[in-house]
Amino acid sequence: MKIGIVGLPNVGKSTMFNAITNAGAECANYPFCTIEPNIGVVPVPDERLDKLTDIYHPQKTTHAIIEFVDIAGLVKGASKGEGLGNKFLSHIREVDAICEVVRCFDDSNIVHVDGNVNPLRDIETINLELIFADIETIDKRLERAKKQLKADKKAQNEIDVLEKIKNVLESGKSARTISLSDEEKELIKDVYLLTAKPILYIANISEDQLNNEENDSYIKLVKEYAKTENASVIPLCIKIEEELSSLSIDDKKEMLEALGLTECGLDKVVKVSYDLLGLMSFLTAGEPEVRAWTIKKGTKAPEAAGKIHSDIQRGFIRAEIVSYDDLIKEGSMNAVREKGLLRIEGKDYIMQDGDIVLFRFNV
Question: Where are the beta strands (DSSP E) in 261-304?
């Protein structure tokens, strides 16, 4: 699963990408420093794996992962090809969700592409370009559907949904704000609208703003806007996160304590991004490996087994499951069995986050 990091030039996108991934993406104070997207694979922080590792002492521990893509800065007119517009739009089509970095700090030494700091204007600039691109996509699809209408009257249902979406887009709102029935979603499942992608806003703030997030006017503006899209906002001092990313575990802990923070902000970004995509983890544990496996929420046991190997899904017999909390409470799998806390689940079982599972199969 891919999260695209977007924003206007010079808002901190590439700096944040570097801090998240330690991948060393080039970062400079001029527009279009990022041309081709940089990609970093990041482990999803999960304390459960650390505790299971202490219990099982495995040969290796493997976290779930998520990909972050640092996409070129966007400017007004991108939907018409301005700046790196066409490349930007093609790159953003390939990601599953959007992480939009918004500048919420004043600093005369860092150039703003529009001359001054205004978070809502910046959000609107990007969103409008994505909306314009979506309107173009809808128009092409409408043209096709109207041609089909002569031969198939059912095409009218698709036309109705497309026009419903176009009306919302033309009012300046994103497709993600529209409530659609399951039937309507099915009709447009292959339209792939940019503004329908889930979004997370990162309010990039200064160190001075860290302890005054609730009263900061810039952050308030971003949060109020995000509510209209049911989106999350994470205030983050990306400059500090960049410093933290270069420290050892002990030094990082010491710096976080000095700042009055309980966790690295970028760990929070990774966790929220993982949740944004409707993902969760089930766990496998033993001496060879302790591992988190990524699945969509609502996945049934056989499909989860297929994440490990297609043969396990094909020959699925049952899943032997204990909840993470029960195992930690009892201290060992033997104690779990003695208490009757090990469950046997079949093909219709819907996996839960934190299930520790052993799949039985025969091929």
Answer: 279-284, 289-296
Token readout for 243 is 């410093």
Quote the pTM value: 0.82
d(C-alpha 169, C-alpha 132), whole Å:
8
pLDDT tens digits for range 205-218:
988 888 777 778 89
Strand segments, DSSP code E, in the chain are: 2-6, 38-43, 60-62, 65-70, 97-103, 199-204, 232-236, 279-284, 289-296, 316-323, 343-345, 355-361
Judge residue 318's burial from the number of C-beta atoms within 10 Å of its C-beta, 0-12 exposed, 13-18 middle, 19 or more buried: middle
Residue 175 has pLDDT above 90, yes or no: yes
CA distance 318 to 187: 36
pLDDT digits over 112-162, tens only? Answer: 666 678 899 999 988 888 898 899 999 999 999 999 888 888 889 999 999
Token digits of residue 44: 């999803």
Is the predicted pLDDT of residue 35 greater than 50, yes or no? Answer: no
Q: Round to whole Å and give the CA distance between 91 and 355.
A: 35
Closest CA to 176 of 137, 131, 119: 131
**Distance between CA atoms of 289 and 49, rounded to whole angstroms?**
10
Count CB atoms within 10 A of the CB of residue 164. 14
Q: What is the 3-state secondary structure (H, E, C) of 166-219?
A: HHHHHCCCCHHHCCCCHHHHHHCCCCCCHHHCCEEEEEECCHHHHHHCCCCHHH
Number of Cα atoms under 13 Å in the Cβ half of residue 213: 15
- Check residue 28 and give its pLDDT: 38
Contacts of 171 by beta carbon, 8 Å cutoff, 6+ apart = none
**C-alpha 47, offset from chain centre:** 19
State the DSSP code for 350. B
CA quadruple 351, 297, 95, 105: dihedral sign: negative
- Which residues neighbour 31 within 8 Å (Cβ) at sequence distance 6 or greater? 9, 10, 73, 75, 83, 113
